[in-house]
Protein backbone atom coordinates (compact mmCIF):
# COMPACT_ATOMS: atom_id res chain seq x y z
CA UNK A 1 0.00 0.00 0.00
CA UNK A 2 1.36 3.39 -1.02
CA UNK A 3 2.01 5.81 1.84
CA UNK A 4 -0.42 8.70 1.48
CA UNK A 5 0.47 12.12 2.83
CA UNK A 6 -2.14 14.14 4.66
CA UNK A 7 -3.07 16.34 1.69
CA UNK A 8 -3.61 13.40 -0.66
CA UNK A 9 -5.61 11.47 1.92
CA UNK A 10 -7.85 14.46 2.63
CA UNK A 11 -8.53 14.78 -1.07
CA UNK A 12 -9.34 11.08 -1.38
CA UNK A 13 -11.58 11.32 1.68
CA UNK A 14 -13.58 13.96 -0.18
CA UNK A 15 -14.10 11.50 -3.05
CA UNK A 16 -15.27 8.42 -1.18
CA UNK A 17 -14.95 6.07 1.76
CA UNK A 18 -11.43 5.23 2.90
CA UNK A 19 -11.87 1.46 2.79
CA UNK A 20 -13.04 1.72 -0.82
CA UNK A 21 -10.28 3.90 -2.22
CA UNK A 22 -7.59 1.94 -0.36
CA UNK A 23 -8.99 -1.28 -1.83
CA UNK A 24 -8.89 0.15 -5.37
CA UNK A 25 -5.42 1.64 -4.91
CA UNK A 26 -4.06 -1.76 -3.90
CA UNK A 27 -5.89 -3.44 -6.78
CA UNK A 28 -4.63 -0.98 -9.41
CA UNK A 29 -1.05 -1.06 -8.18
CA UNK A 30 -1.01 -4.86 -8.28
CA UNK A 31 -1.99 -4.82 -11.97
CA UNK A 32 0.81 -5.80 -14.36
CA UNK A 33 -0.46 -3.85 -17.40
CA UNK A 34 1.57 -0.96 -18.83
CA UNK A 35 -0.90 1.59 -17.44
CA UNK A 36 -3.78 1.21 -15.03
CA UNK A 37 -6.42 2.67 -17.37
CA UNK A 38 -7.02 3.95 -20.89
CA UNK A 39 -9.12 7.12 -21.02
CA UNK A 40 -11.08 7.74 -24.23
CA UNK A 41 -12.53 11.27 -24.16
CA UNK A 42 -14.86 12.83 -26.69
CA UNK A 43 -14.22 16.26 -28.16
CA UNK A 44 -16.83 17.95 -25.99
CA UNK A 45 -15.36 16.65 -22.75
CA UNK A 46 -11.89 17.93 -23.71
CA UNK A 47 -13.00 21.33 -24.96
CA UNK A 48 -15.14 21.87 -21.87
CA UNK A 49 -12.90 20.25 -19.27
CA UNK A 50 -9.25 19.90 -20.34
CA UNK A 51 -8.09 21.78 -17.24
CA UNK A 52 -10.20 19.61 -14.91
CA UNK A 53 -8.97 16.47 -16.65
CA UNK A 54 -5.34 17.60 -16.33
CA UNK A 55 -5.80 18.24 -12.59
CA UNK A 56 -7.30 14.79 -11.96
CA UNK A 57 -4.64 13.01 -13.99
CA UNK A 58 -1.86 14.87 -12.18
CA UNK A 59 -3.41 13.59 -8.96
CA UNK A 60 -3.36 10.02 -10.31
CA UNK A 61 0.35 10.38 -11.12
CA UNK A 62 0.97 11.44 -7.52
CA UNK A 63 -0.66 8.18 -6.49
CA UNK A 64 1.81 6.33 -8.75
CA UNK A 65 -1.00 5.35 -11.10
CA UNK A 66 -0.26 5.92 -14.77
CA UNK A 67 -3.29 6.62 -17.00
CA UNK A 68 -3.02 6.94 -20.77
CA UNK A 69 -5.31 8.89 -23.06
CA UNK A 70 -6.40 7.51 -26.42
CA UNK A 71 -7.50 9.90 -29.19
CA UNK A 72 -8.91 8.29 -32.33
CA UNK A 73 -10.59 9.22 -35.57
CA UNK A 74 -11.15 12.44 -37.46
CA UNK A 75 -11.53 14.61 -34.34
CA UNK A 76 -8.27 13.45 -32.76
CA UNK A 77 -6.27 16.43 -34.13
CA UNK A 78 -8.71 18.91 -32.55
CA UNK A 79 -8.64 16.97 -29.28
CA UNK A 80 -4.84 16.97 -29.29
CA UNK A 81 -4.77 20.72 -29.88
CA UNK A 82 -7.13 21.28 -26.95
CA UNK A 83 -5.06 19.07 -24.62
CA UNK A 84 -1.78 20.65 -25.73
CA UNK A 85 -2.62 23.78 -23.73
CA UNK A 86 -1.92 21.72 -20.57
CA UNK A 87 1.80 20.93 -20.04
CA UNK A 88 1.13 17.62 -18.29
CA UNK A 89 0.35 15.81 -21.56
CA UNK A 90 2.92 14.10 -23.79
CA UNK A 91 1.83 13.00 -27.29
CA UNK A 92 2.76 10.03 -29.41
CA UNK A 93 1.39 8.58 -32.70
CA UNK A 94 -0.16 5.19 -32.00
CA UNK A 95 1.59 3.59 -34.99
CA UNK A 96 5.06 4.89 -34.11
CA UNK A 97 7.36 2.85 -31.88
CA UNK A 98 6.44 0.78 -28.85
CA UNK A 99 3.45 1.97 -26.86
CA UNK A 100 4.67 0.40 -23.61
CA UNK A 101 8.06 2.14 -23.92
CA UNK A 102 6.39 5.51 -24.53
CA UNK A 103 4.20 5.02 -21.46
CA UNK A 104 7.26 4.18 -19.33
CA UNK A 105 9.14 7.25 -20.58
CA UNK A 106 6.12 9.46 -19.87
CA UNK A 107 5.84 8.05 -16.37
CA UNK A 108 9.52 8.75 -15.72
CA UNK A 109 8.98 12.33 -16.91
CA UNK A 110 5.83 12.65 -14.70
CA UNK A 111 3.70 13.24 -17.78
CA UNK A 112 0.45 11.68 -18.95
CA UNK A 113 0.95 9.71 -22.19
CA UNK A 114 -1.48 10.53 -25.00
CA UNK A 115 -1.78 8.07 -27.91
CA UNK A 116 -3.03 9.65 -31.13
CA UNK A 117 -4.48 7.67 -34.04
CA UNK A 118 -6.18 9.98 -36.55
CA UNK A 119 -6.72 7.26 -39.17
CA UNK A 120 -7.86 4.54 -36.75
CA UNK A 121 -11.33 4.18 -35.26
CA UNK A 122 -11.78 3.62 -31.54
CA UNK A 123 -12.81 -0.03 -31.73
CA UNK A 124 -9.77 -1.07 -33.76
CA UNK A 125 -7.38 0.83 -31.49
CA UNK A 126 -8.85 -0.64 -28.32
CA UNK A 127 -8.66 -4.17 -29.73
CA UNK A 128 -4.94 -3.64 -30.21
CA UNK A 129 -4.34 -2.15 -26.76
CA UNK A 130 -6.43 -4.14 -24.28
CA UNK A 131 -5.70 -5.97 -22.10
CA UNK A 132 -1.91 -5.81 -22.59
CA UNK A 133 -1.60 -2.03 -22.30
CA UNK A 134 -4.54 -1.59 -19.91
CA UNK A 135 -7.31 -3.71 -18.43
CA UNK A 136 -9.58 -0.74 -17.70
CA UNK A 137 -11.17 1.60 -20.23
CA UNK A 138 -13.06 4.74 -19.22
CA UNK A 139 -14.96 6.53 -21.98
CA UNK A 140 -15.13 10.20 -20.98
CA UNK A 141 -18.22 11.91 -22.32
CA UNK A 142 -19.22 15.54 -21.84
CA UNK A 143 -22.75 14.37 -20.99
CA UNK A 144 -21.44 11.81 -18.48
CA UNK A 145 -22.79 8.30 -17.98
CA UNK A 146 -25.57 6.90 -20.13
CA UNK A 147 -29.14 7.73 -19.20
CA UNK A 148 -32.53 6.20 -19.82
CA UNK A 149 -35.20 7.87 -21.93
CA UNK A 150 -36.38 9.77 -18.82
CA UNK A 151 -32.93 11.28 -18.25
CA UNK A 152 -32.00 9.13 -15.23
CA UNK A 153 -28.44 7.83 -14.95
CA UNK A 154 -28.03 4.10 -15.61
CA UNK A 155 -25.33 2.70 -13.30
CA UNK A 156 -25.08 -0.48 -15.42
CA UNK A 157 -25.77 -1.54 -18.97
CA UNK A 158 -25.84 -5.30 -19.55
CA UNK A 159 -24.50 -5.96 -23.04
CA UNK A 160 -25.52 -9.64 -23.18
CA UNK A 161 -28.82 -9.52 -21.29
CA UNK A 162 -32.07 -7.64 -21.54
CA UNK A 163 -31.64 -4.04 -20.46
CA UNK A 164 -34.76 -3.09 -18.57
CA UNK A 165 -34.81 0.58 -19.55
CA UNK A 166 -34.54 2.19 -23.02
CA UNK A 167 -31.52 4.43 -23.53
CA UNK A 168 -31.38 8.11 -24.39
CA UNK A 169 -30.43 8.99 -28.00
CA UNK A 170 -26.63 8.58 -28.23
CA UNK A 171 -24.07 10.41 -30.33
CA UNK A 172 -21.97 7.22 -30.36
CA UNK A 173 -23.03 3.59 -30.00
CA UNK A 174 -21.26 2.81 -26.72
CA UNK A 175 -23.32 -0.35 -25.94
CA UNK A 176 -22.41 -2.05 -29.22
CA UNK A 177 -18.72 -1.19 -28.78
CA UNK A 178 -18.91 -2.44 -25.19
CA UNK A 179 -20.46 -5.73 -26.30
CA UNK A 180 -17.77 -6.25 -28.95
CA UNK A 181 -14.92 -5.59 -26.54
CA UNK A 182 -16.36 -7.79 -23.79
CA UNK A 183 -16.85 -10.59 -26.33
CA UNK A 184 -13.33 -10.35 -27.71
CA UNK A 185 -11.48 -9.23 -24.57
CA UNK A 186 -13.29 -10.76 -21.58
CA UNK A 187 -12.39 -9.35 -18.19
CA UNK A 188 -11.80 -5.79 -19.39
CA UNK A 189 -13.44 -3.07 -17.27
CA UNK A 190 -15.50 -0.62 -19.38
CA UNK A 191 -17.38 2.44 -18.18
CA UNK A 192 -18.62 5.85 -19.31
CA UNK A 193 -18.32 8.94 -17.10
CA UNK A 194 -17.78 12.71 -17.29
CA UNK A 195 -14.47 14.55 -16.76
CA UNK A 196 -15.91 16.05 -13.56
CA UNK A 197 -16.70 12.63 -12.08
CA UNK A 198 -13.69 10.60 -13.24
CA UNK A 199 -12.06 10.13 -9.82
CA UNK A 200 -15.33 9.16 -8.17
CA UNK A 201 -15.92 6.64 -10.94
CA UNK A 202 -12.46 5.16 -10.37
CA UNK A 203 -12.24 5.06 -6.57
CA UNK A 204 -15.76 4.30 -5.28
CA UNK A 205 -17.90 1.18 -5.35
CA UNK A 206 -20.97 3.13 -6.42
CA UNK A 207 -19.04 4.95 -9.11
CA UNK A 208 -20.33 7.95 -11.02
CA UNK A 209 -21.11 6.78 -14.51
CA UNK A 210 -22.27 3.72 -16.42
CA UNK A 211 -20.51 0.36 -16.21
CA UNK A 212 -20.79 -2.13 -19.08
CA UNK A 213 -21.18 -5.78 -18.08
CA UNK A 214 -22.12 -8.95 -19.88
CA UNK A 215 -24.44 -9.79 -17.01
CA UNK A 216 -24.13 -12.51 -14.41
CA UNK A 217 -25.37 -16.08 -14.52
CA UNK A 218 -27.57 -16.43 -11.43
CA UNK A 219 -28.29 -19.97 -10.28
CA UNK A 220 -31.47 -20.78 -8.35
CA UNK A 221 -31.38 -23.56 -5.74
CA UNK A 222 -34.16 -25.13 -3.69
CA UNK A 223 -32.55 -25.27 -0.29
CA UNK A 224 -28.79 -25.70 -0.51
CA UNK A 225 -28.70 -28.99 -2.38
CA UNK A 226 -25.94 -28.73 -4.98
CA UNK A 227 -24.43 -25.61 -3.38
CA UNK A 228 -20.71 -25.49 -2.60
CA UNK A 229 -21.06 -24.63 1.08
CA UNK A 230 -17.39 -23.88 1.58
CA UNK A 231 -17.41 -21.25 -1.16
CA UNK A 232 -20.72 -19.85 0.08
CA UNK A 233 -19.43 -19.48 3.63
CA UNK A 234 -16.27 -17.78 2.36
CA UNK A 235 -18.44 -15.33 0.40
CA UNK A 236 -20.61 -14.55 3.44
CA UNK A 237 -17.63 -13.87 5.71
CA UNK A 238 -15.90 -11.72 3.08
CA UNK A 239 -19.07 -9.75 2.38
CA UNK A 240 -19.96 -9.06 6.02
CA UNK A 241 -16.36 -8.76 7.21
CA UNK A 242 -17.10 -11.04 10.16
CA UNK A 243 -16.74 -14.67 11.16
CA UNK A 244 -19.82 -16.86 11.28
CA UNK A 245 -20.51 -18.34 14.68
CA UNK A 246 -23.78 -20.15 13.94
CA UNK A 247 -24.07 -22.33 10.84
CA UNK A 248 -27.56 -23.59 11.71
CA UNK A 249 -29.20 -20.86 9.63
CA UNK A 250 -27.99 -22.69 6.51
CA UNK A 251 -30.31 -25.58 7.33
CA UNK A 252 -33.28 -23.18 7.28
CA UNK A 253 -32.57 -21.85 3.77
CA UNK A 254 -35.45 -22.73 1.45
CA UNK A 255 -34.42 -20.71 -1.63
CA UNK A 256 -30.96 -19.57 -2.73
CA UNK A 257 -29.85 -17.34 -5.61
CA UNK A 258 -26.10 -17.55 -6.17
CA UNK A 259 -23.91 -15.94 -8.83
CA UNK A 260 -22.14 -18.67 -10.80
CA UNK A 261 -18.68 -17.68 -9.54
CA UNK A 262 -19.88 -17.30 -5.92
CA UNK A 263 -19.40 -13.54 -6.06
CA UNK A 264 -22.86 -12.86 -4.64
CA UNK A 265 -25.78 -14.65 -3.02
CA UNK A 266 -29.32 -14.16 -1.70
CA UNK A 267 -30.51 -16.69 0.88
CA UNK A 268 -34.21 -16.92 1.78
CA UNK A 269 -36.08 -18.75 4.56
CA UNK A 270 -39.76 -19.65 4.44
CA UNK A 271 -41.84 -18.01 7.19
CA UNK A 272 -45.63 -17.85 7.62
CA UNK A 273 -45.88 -14.25 6.37
CA UNK A 274 -43.51 -14.71 3.44
CA UNK A 275 -39.84 -15.29 2.72
CA UNK A 276 -37.29 -13.88 5.13
CA UNK A 277 -34.16 -12.55 3.41
CA UNK A 278 -31.60 -14.16 5.67
CA UNK A 279 -28.44 -13.09 3.83
CA UNK A 280 -27.71 -10.70 0.95
CA UNK A 281 -23.99 -10.94 0.23
CA UNK A 282 -21.77 -9.52 -2.51
CA UNK A 283 -18.02 -10.15 -2.61
CA UNK A 284 -15.66 -7.22 -2.50
CA UNK A 285 -14.40 -7.64 -6.06
CA UNK A 286 -17.98 -7.68 -7.40
CA UNK A 287 -19.21 -4.54 -5.63
CA UNK A 288 -20.12 -1.76 -7.99
CA UNK A 289 -20.59 -4.21 -10.88
CA UNK A 290 -24.35 -4.54 -10.53
CA UNK A 291 -24.29 -8.11 -9.18
CA UNK A 292 -26.45 -7.06 -6.21
CA UNK A 293 -29.14 -5.67 -8.51
CA UNK A 294 -29.09 -8.81 -10.67
CA UNK A 295 -29.52 -11.03 -7.62
CA UNK A 296 -32.30 -8.82 -6.29
CA UNK A 297 -34.17 -8.85 -9.60
CA UNK A 298 -34.09 -12.64 -9.74
CA UNK A 299 -35.28 -13.06 -6.15
CA UNK A 300 -37.98 -10.36 -6.20
CA UNK A 301 -39.25 -11.44 -9.64
CA UNK A 302 -39.88 -14.97 -8.38
CA UNK A 303 -41.19 -14.12 -4.90
CA UNK A 304 -43.82 -11.50 -4.14
CA UNK A 305 -43.68 -11.45 -0.33
CA UNK A 306 -40.26 -10.68 1.23
CA UNK A 307 -39.08 -9.15 4.48
CA UNK A 308 -35.66 -8.52 6.00
CA UNK A 309 -33.72 -6.57 8.59
CA UNK A 310 -30.60 -4.42 8.42
CA UNK A 311 -28.44 -2.67 10.99
CA UNK A 312 -29.45 0.99 11.20
CA UNK A 313 -25.84 1.98 10.36
CA UNK A 314 -25.79 -0.02 7.10
CA UNK A 315 -25.03 2.40 4.21
CA UNK A 316 -27.08 0.10 1.97
CA UNK A 317 -30.31 1.10 3.75
CA UNK A 318 -31.07 3.91 1.31
CA UNK A 319 -31.24 1.33 -1.46
CA UNK A 320 -33.37 -0.96 0.73
CA UNK A 321 -35.82 1.91 1.29
CA UNK A 322 -36.29 2.19 -2.46
CA UNK A 323 -37.07 -1.54 -2.81
CA UNK A 324 -39.45 -1.85 0.13
CA UNK A 325 -43.18 -1.14 0.49
CA UNK A 326 -42.59 -0.20 4.13
CA UNK A 327 -40.06 -0.14 6.95
CA UNK A 328 -39.86 0.20 10.71
CA UNK A 329 -36.92 1.16 12.95
CA UNK A 330 -36.58 -0.49 16.33
CA UNK A 331 -33.43 -0.71 18.44
CA UNK A 332 -30.44 -1.34 16.18
CA UNK A 333 -32.55 -2.73 13.35
CA UNK A 334 -34.31 -1.32 10.33
CA UNK A 335 -36.98 -3.81 9.27
CA UNK A 336 -38.17 -3.77 5.65
CA UNK A 337 -40.94 -5.53 3.77
CA UNK A 338 -42.56 -5.78 0.36
CA UNK A 339 -45.68 -7.70 -0.60
CA UNK A 340 -46.46 -8.43 3.08
CA UNK A 341 -50.12 -8.12 4.17
CA UNK A 342 -50.90 -5.40 6.70
CA UNK A 343 -52.07 -7.91 9.34
CA UNK A 344 -48.68 -9.72 9.19
CA UNK A 345 -46.45 -6.69 9.74
CA UNK A 346 -46.44 -6.88 13.54
CA UNK A 347 -45.47 -10.56 13.39
CA UNK A 348 -42.54 -10.00 11.00
CA UNK A 349 -41.26 -7.16 13.20
CA UNK A 350 -41.44 -9.46 16.21
CA UNK A 351 -39.61 -12.19 14.30
CA UNK A 352 -36.82 -9.87 13.16
CA UNK A 353 -36.31 -8.46 16.65
CA UNK A 354 -36.20 -11.90 18.26
CA UNK A 355 -33.93 -13.56 15.76
CA UNK A 356 -30.37 -14.14 16.95
CA UNK A 357 -27.21 -13.13 15.07
CA UNK A 358 -25.12 -15.51 13.00
CA UNK A 359 -21.89 -13.49 12.99
CA UNK A 360 -19.48 -12.77 15.79
Outline of the structure:
The protein has 360 residues and is an alpha/beta fold. The protein has helices at residues 6-15, 18-30, 43-62, 76-83, 99-108, 122-129, 174-184, 198-203, 229-240, 291-302, 317-323, 345-354, and strands at 37-41, 67-72, 89-93, 112-117, 136-140, 156-158, 189-193, 209-213, 218-222, 253-259, 264-271, 274-282, 306-311, 326-330, 333-338.
Would you mind describing this structure in some detail?
With 360 residues, this protein is an alpha/beta fold. The chain folds into 2 domains: 6-213, 3-Layer(aba) Sandwich (Carbamate kinase), CATH 3.40.1160; 218-354, Gcn5-related N-acetyltransferase (GNAT) (Aminopeptidase, 3-Layer(aba) Sandwich). The protein has 12 helices and 15 strands. The strands form 2 sheets. The protein has an 8-stranded mixed β-sheet with strand order 3-4-2-1-5-7-8-6, sandwiched between helices. The protein has a 7-stranded mixed β-sheet with strand order 9-10-11-12-13-15-14, with helices on both faces. The longest helix has 20 residues, at 43-62. It is elongated.
